[in-house]
Specification:
The structure is a homodimer. The first copy, chain A, contains 7 helices and 13 strands. By secondary structure, chain A is α+β, with helices and mostly antiparallel strands. Chain A has 2 domains: 284 residues, Deoxyribonuclease I, Chain A; 103 residues. The mean pLDDT of chain A is 87. Chains A and B meet through β5, α3 and α7 of A and β5, α3 and α7 of B. Chains A, B: Pathway: Sphingolipid metabolism; Lipid metabolism; sphingolipid metabolism.
Chain lengths: 410, 410
């Protein structure tokens, strides 16, 4: 499309690539397949998550240089954010926002904490229209019935919505792609959509082709954990492309597609997630379109209130853990002091006779030191968690007050 | 001033309060003094840093409720961000951005790492004019000659500038107050001002009253460390109020004041820093004023290049530390393996005869485990540091390319 042409057709690709070194099955093969397909299929913007190995990113970058000359990898955390974007159009600027909460460092089996979950933003200009393109990956849901990570994921959804709201105003169009780890009706999605006014490409699409209900985690994919999907025989939809027009521009979703298990013409899928592919039709308008910031206010009040309730539940749990780890640290310290007193007593009174077996005495001391250090670390961590949950809860209270005080000032 | 009146006079107060529990001298007394003065003196916006104790914040909030009915404390890190804002006008929204680097956890004597340095943003609307008010505190400078924290502070200055640039567009006026820990000519200040277009209230002020050259850390203050100020007999200026008009508004600094050691009418200063107080004159214009994003481009290229060079120096140092901590971890692991082999050999071959003294053997093993854990932790930390420095360096390279490719598109 030429500069100045009032309509623009944009093809966007989004995929959680599941490319974790040493852990993801047939990783290198799949990354190659993804690269080949992206080169053949000519999208305009490619938003990827879980590209944890920078080598994989470099390989993709090398392979895609011809058709996607611009790209950005968002660095964060020990391993990286896993987020990257490939683009046919120049990337003018980037910004990374790290979520303040992201699970627990001691939940090693759920390595989320180490991966520095964040939201990446690139700014690009296509045919004179400025796009803010966000890519993100929220904390995974490991057990839907008893989801201990829900408060953290909701803090992330809130921070994501706030980050988008505060950074979108220079843009004409906002695009968000990523693995949000939330089902379409979940409170976090309703919050995100209500608070930002983003539209769901799946719900808005004129044409759809792919898995039933747009699911992106399906039993039909040979890499998905079948037991987790037992309650959802068709699968779940947790990967999204969302969009919003800000100024004198309209955006419509012409078509949405997902992959359906195996990659087209291959014997394996690209990932354990299905890819989401949207074709957007963007049209410049004569006059500015009203910037409708989201859902009607009474509904927005409900959804913020619901989120706040969940955050408060998380806050109570974090306060309990802060208390119990603090108590553990104090007990370990007391044990150490007791041992020190006993040792001093032994040294002063009966240097010859040894009342304690040296080895078990020193082992006990080391154990106490270990528990003390661990419990102190955990106590500090949960203190931080409490502060962040409190801070978010306060922000939501402020938002609710603002919503309720000015019901007509949408 | 009435809504609709085209001019507005705004009084802003900024102070690093040095209110660290147990560590800061005469803390409670000084916090009380600060509260009394703020209540008497009737500013419009009060930006405070280093209010580390939430109790102090609550006390101030209680005392200032009458004249500053709106306030916000920015939670972050274990202790909090220390940042808070009091306002005569409703706070409509808030956002906190945490810097990705902030010193080293093992530099306990320079506790910066634990304090979660960040930038807080509040949005407020005064007489129909939207203000984005930022408050921040960058990493301290402990030794100007050999400033190992310079790369971290420059990453923070860059992230601060990027955060402001991406969030300012909905505002009519941008205000930034805080302890930037940089002298006026330092590369980080030049970067921040050049990249955002913020103006220095001290340099622009029509009238000035206070310490010579606007210094905010002066030998005349009984709480400052005199040895650190030896090279600067007049003191240094590291606390700033910066501002910028975005849309159809002009901002002028009518007056800038600083405190001068002791608080007016008292025998002690408010803090070890001097307070900065600006009176701004804000006028609505008929038509939009060109949004000049900062310094002329050739100068901007120079300052970004200079910053990038310093970031690369930091990157090299971080890479060296990542390597040496990794080597240390491997050595500790080898020692442990060696011990395990020896112990197994002893168990298998000569169960009766004990070739090693048990106590020193187990102490050595515990030592090796300790070193292994510590070195691994540090290795992970420096890996993260390397990633963040690399990421910033890449962003700066992208910015330079954009600046150089479009020299006329300021």
């Amino acid at each position: 499309m030429e500069d100045g042409d009032p309509t623009l057709r944009l093809r966007i690709f989004d995929l959680n690539c599941w490319a974790i070194r040493y852990l993801s099955k047939r990783r290198q093969e799949r990354v190659q397949l993804i690269g080949d397909m992206l080169r053949q299929d000519g999208f305009d913007l490619v938003l990827l998550q879980e590209v944890w190995s920078e080598q994989d990113y470099s390989d993709l970058k090398g392979k895609l240089r011809g058709c996607y000359p611009f790209s950005h990898y968002f660095h964060s955390g020990v391993i990286g954010s896993g987020l990257c974007i490939f683009s046919r159009f120049p990337i003018l600027d980037t910004l990374l926002y790290q979520y303040s909460l992201n699970g627990y460092p001691y939940m090693l089996q759920h390595g989320d904490w180490f991966c520095g979950k964040s939201v990446g933003l690139i700014v690009t200009k296509i045919s004179g229209i400025i796009f803010n393109v966000y890519v993100t990956h929220l904390h995974a849901e490991y057990c839907r019935e008893k989801d201990v990570y829900l408060p953290h994921r909701l803090v992330q959804a809130w921070e994501l919505a706030q980050f988008i709201r505060h950074t979108l105003t220079a843009a004409d169009v906002v695009l968000l792609g990523g693995d949000l780890n939330m089902h379409p009706g979940d409170v976090g999605i309703r919050l995100l959509r209500g608070w930002t006014g983003l539209r769901d490409a799946f719900a808005e699409a004129a044409r759809f082709e792919g898995c039933e209900d747009g699911c992106t985690l399906i039993p039909n994919n040979c890499f998905t954990a079948k037991t987790e999907l037992l309650p959802f025989p068709q699968g779940v939809r947790i990967d999204y492309i969302l969009y919003k027009a800000i100024s004198s521009v309209t955006v419509k979703c012409e078509e949405l597609k997902t992959t359906t298990g195996t990659a087209p013409g291959m014997d394996i899928p690209f990932s354990d997630h299905e890819a989401v592919m949207a074709t957007l039709h963007i049209q410049r308008q004569g006059q500015a379109v009203g910037d409708n910031l989201g859902t009607a206010e009474p509904m927005l009040v409900d959804v913020v209130t619901e989120t706040r309730t969940e955050v408060v539940v998380g806050l109570r749990a974090a306060q309990r853990q802060r208390y119990s780890t603090g108590r553990m640290a104090v007990l370990a310290l007391l044990l150490l002091l007791l041992q020190a007193v006993a040792a001093l007593g032994a040294l002063a009174g009966l240097v010859a006779g040894q009342p304690f077996p040296k080895l078990s005495f020193s082992l006990l001391a080391f154990l106490a030191i270990g528990v003390l250090l661990l419990a102190t670390g955990l106590h500090l961590f949960h203190t931080m968690e409490v502060k962040m949950l409190q801070g978010t809860e306060e922000q939501m209270r402020m938002a609710l007050r603002a919503l309720q005080e000015r019901p007509s000032d949408g």
